[in-house]
Amino acid sequence: MTTSNWDKFVLLLWKNWIIQKRHYVQTVFEVTIPVLACSLLILVRGLVTPTVYTEPTTFGSLNVQSLAMIREMVTNHPISLKIAYSPRNDVFERIVSRAARMLGTDVLHQGYNDSESMYKDLVTHNYLAGLEFGDELENITSLPDRVSVAVRFPSEMRTTTLPGAQFWANWRTFLIFPQFQVYGARNINVSDGGYPANYYAEGFASVQNAISRAVLELRAGRNDSLPHVELRRFPYPPFYDDPLLRGLENLFPSIIMVAFFYSCINTVKFITLEKEKQLKESMKVMGLDGWIHWVAWFVRTLTLLTLSITLVTVLLSCNLTTNTKVAIFQFSNRFLIWLFLFVYSITTIMLCFMISTFFSKANIASGIAGIVWFYSLTPFQLTFGNYDRMSLAAKLGSSLWSNTAMGYGVMLFMKHEGTSIGLQWDNLLSPVTVDDQLTMAHIFGMLLADAALYLAVALYIERIAPGQFGVPRKWNFIFTASFWMQEVFRRKPCSNDSDTIAVENSLESERLKSTGRYHANREEEPIDGQIGISMVGLTKIYDSGNPSSRAAVSELTVNFYRDQITVLLGHNGAGKTTTMGMLTGMYPPTAGYATIEGHRIGGTAVNKFRNTLGFCPQHNVLFNELTVAEHIRFFARLKGVRQEVYIQTEIDKYVRALGLESKRNEQSHTLSGGMKRKLSLAVALCGGSRVVFCDEPTSGMDPGARRTVWDLLQQEKRDRTIILSTHFMDEADVLGDRIAVMCDGELRAVGTPFFLKKRFGAGYRLVCVKRPDCQPETVVMLLRRYVPDVVVESDIGTELSLRLHEQYRAMFQPALEELEQNVDQCGISGYG
């Protein structure tokens, strides 16, 4: 039985849908929080009403014959009404003195020998302006035909009354047009146009006019022969003014970031929770490829986000207010708005994937994800005020943070809206102004590049640091030939046939005998047994870089056979769980190797046999939201059972066999600890797993439940290789066709229970299930009539354990017959 990748993908979608449906409150939040957050913009839109100008707008005239405007304004710095010029000679003295008189009787002037000296004083004394005619004209004696002059003003605006303008307001001469294009007249209430082109208020136009008139009059040889000149802005046709657009440039990205915040942390939490609870690795153990896991989560999350962004697009592009006739995005193409949010959603999901791979605890991962999410907008917020000075490379580099790329995208949307054209397909590749090279095509490209980068990092970290469980690859595995030519390496001949395995095992046995590690506590291998699992020199050292580290498992060489239950017996810390972890591919072996169903474990070969495995780990690996029946259905389908009638048969069989009929449709988080262990065992056995690992499957169960599990395992061992770990001697005795005794990571003995009893002479154990009225002394006295040296091993809870010496084996039958006849008097309900 095999399951195609498509079937596994659909199965994971079904599982995710069930989980999402049962977290309906979180589902509603994930869909509605982006909508509610963006609804705030609708409220703001309703509060900010665009002004409609039905008549052409005209502006007043500006007198540039004097500096009256400077004297009337409150300035940021005290301005000295002095004009500096260089170089100093009679020609330029006549020009500057004439210009100064035109500007006002209180305007002074001062000459300098060269421009460098003038520049130093300009910086120090805050003069009105400096005039640089060119140092090469220092020795001229007459006015040249062409006069070129550079008018020097401080880079900071001195008359701008905007808050903090002295720190940021400048002439922005590197721009041809304002960065933010508005639909309508710029600064309609200011006749000179206002910031950033304050040529009138700063006195630049007046100084330029005075110098030009002075040169012309001196050239003509007449005074006051030129006409009076005033300035006036061109009239502007009717328009509407929307002040909201400029405010949303910085606000809107923050609203979108908050809108997707819950989806981000929730996605990271759910993905990391599966890793924390070993659900992800358990599914991989039983045949799920890692990439299918990621694709299923991607589709689940994108589906929810697509629903959200569709509603958000409607909110942003439709007029939903009663007092305005415009939407947030009045002009832009609606599909482009949706497409921008869709691409951003893809990048967001990939960021969640990347963050989840760095953590193994869901709560920590979701907390860090929230911090990263908010700080990823920081580059945009830091560069917002200096956007027009940034190069294209700097903007694209900052956009490696997805939220920063989103911020720039929203800014460009608003700029396009300001042109009254909006973002359309025909201007997708064009910047808003000639001064800005960044286009929306760049933003789309960077969001997709971010998504690819985040996904690559996620897949890489998952390979080299899969967490506590999983086989890590070397950090440089992407530079190896085997990674890029896996098919070539897979076609190399591999010695996985049974004859080769037998030869290798024989050679290893001879080696162990020569080193003294192969002892007489090993029973001879069964001649007609079919090997299901073979281990040769299997070793695990967790801190292999430390020479003093002790091996958790040391040179383990043993075979497990089909149609048998092999028990790994040992106390806590003996190495049983580590051995199972290496066999299932959850831990990489430090040395040695193992073969399962003819496939050697290790590296990429792990995936070759995982479809044949069933796994019941030491703790419960269950989905809290799935019911008992849904668990069996999910894992049976994962292992290749496709027909519904067979799936239903599997569910009925294991629910009935484990006594879970009343809990069939109950979610797993409502089950008791013992019932969860039963369900974990059913998950391991369902689907016809040919190799089943059970790590202490009866831990936490009462004696009756343990007996139920024992019976099921005995029934299910046909055509399977079952490996069961335990530290209960009675459980090993009842279940084990063969028992491998481990201590301190080493194999101390292996053989049938009869062989081990004969070898170590520990006797037999009789386990009685007590009723509340049981008197253990009565049971002991009855048995001592036949077995004089019977010993009470334990008397805990409802279980009474007695040891019977082997030499009295002939008396066991009459002793048990009398015990059967007196169960009521002894107060026991059963024994074994």
Question: What does the model show?
Answer:
This protein is of the alpha/beta class. It has four domains: 7-46 and 242-464, no CATH class; 62-231, no CATH class; 498-758, Rossmann fold (3-Layer(aba) Sandwich); 763-831, 2-Layer Sandwich (Alpha-Beta Plaits), CATH 3.30.70. Helix content is 45%, strand content 14%. The protein is built from 30 helices and 22 strands. A six-stranded mixed beta sheet has the order 14-15-16-11-17-18, with helices on both faces. Helix 2 (24-47) runs antiparallel to helix 8 (244-259). The longest helix is centred in the middle third of the chain and has 28 residues, at 290-317. The model is unreliable at 487-496 (pLDDT under 50).
Compact overview of the structure:
It is built from 30 helices and 22 strands. It has 832 residues and is α/β, with parallel strands linked by helices. 38% of the residues are buried.
Number of H- or I-type helical stretches: 30
Instruction: Label the structural class.
Output: alpha/beta
Looking at the structure, what is the overall shape? elongated
* Rg (CA only): 42 Å
Share of helix among residues?
A: 40-55%
Give the count of structural domains.
4
Number of strands: 22
- Profile the largest sheet: 6 strands, mixed
Strand content: 5-15%
List low-pLDDT spans. 487-496
Mean of the pLDDT scores? 84
Strand order across the largest sheet: 14-15-16-11-17-18
Intertermini distance = 38 Å
GO molecular function, one term: lipid transporter activity
Domain ABC transporter: 536-769
Pfam family, one: ABC_tran
Membrane topology: Multi-pass membrane protein
